[in-house]
User: What shape does this take?
Amino acid sequence: MLFDRFDLQPDDPLLALIGEVRADPRRHRLDLSVGVYRDEEGQTPVMEAVKAAEAQLVAGQASKAYLGPAGDVQFCARIADLVLGTRSGCQVAGLQSVGGTGALRLAARLLAVNPRPHGSGPATIWLAKPTWGNHVPVFEGAGLRIRTFAHTDAMGTALDFAAWLEMVERAEPGDAVLLQGCGHNPTGIDFTAQQWATLATRMADKGLFPLVDLAYQGFGLGLEEDAAGVRALVERVPEALIAVSCNKTFGLYRDRVGALLMTGLQAAPLAKAMAMAKALARGEYSMPPDHGAAVVRTVLESADLTALWTRELDAMRTRLIQTRKAIAAHPLASDLGLTGLADQKGMFCLLGAGHRVVQRLKDESAIYVAPDGRVNLAGLPLARVDDFLAGLASASRAPQPEMAL
Ligand code: LMR
Assistant: This one.
């Protein structure tokens, strides 16, 4: 029997926690695992701007006929504006994707179908580890060869920029490199403006191809500030791919909203890349689902809704920054190695704790973090910062040897 010959796959270790948390009867449970924003009451409400856009769509949408494999092209144009601002010298094409992950997968397929300009073997992508747990399956499944390098200290709490420059030396021209645009998942450590500029120039000189994963624009310092790195990059490289997710920034998680942007210096090669991306999308899923992208487009086409959305996003970011500051200033922060949190950005931080601590946090305090020790700070109410740190301090203490009776 065919089905019976499959190896039994474990659930994704991060997503499995969604069900585990729900099934945990402890009322004080704290879910800091999957990257979802929660308010002080622990809810993930639909944003007001999204509700208003949805109401407009319901009232005014005249047809649900197919749009084609590129999806909603006006949505893509608005996303290009949001990410790249007013750009000079660089041209942009883009297609709608199934969330940011779908954009990454499409980007990986584009890289994989392209013959390598140098050497032989499959197209290669360099991943800086630690990284989001799904990057490897997404790229490997698309047929890319993955090479990794460590980009932080052993705790995952300080950037090792020299390691990036070393990677550039070791990589072969034509290799792709994954960069995270802002709010690094899982470390929260972003490049400085100077580091973006240096890396972009070195990569361009070496002929490396950048793929940017941009899922948290607006969660770090602000919509413009968080896009500065990717903008500096595209100014310095001849071509780039940018996988954009709107799932977090518009709170549209389950609607899976994203876009794959391509930047280049000339229109003709971009048109070929776009045609290839559409052909690949057609073979993968034919056409993307419309609703979430239509909502985002409706928000971004209206000055009032954009202002409302921006205020809501600002409020989420402000809470996140307060949480980071509250943890960093807490009396337990120093012992737990968390004083650097206020200088990091976005939804996540890495505890640098081993599996044992992660397990004890769950067992003893009903605090759920990702299996790699990543904490979703956006899920932590300010009122529970004390509980979180007390639980972490307790889980980090070496277990007492059992007393002989
Ligand atoms: C996360 O990193 O927690 C989210 O992006 C959810 C996911 O798909 O892993």
Q: What stands out?
A: DSSP finds 14 helices and eleven strands in the chain. The mean pLDDT is 94. The radius of gyration is 22 Å.
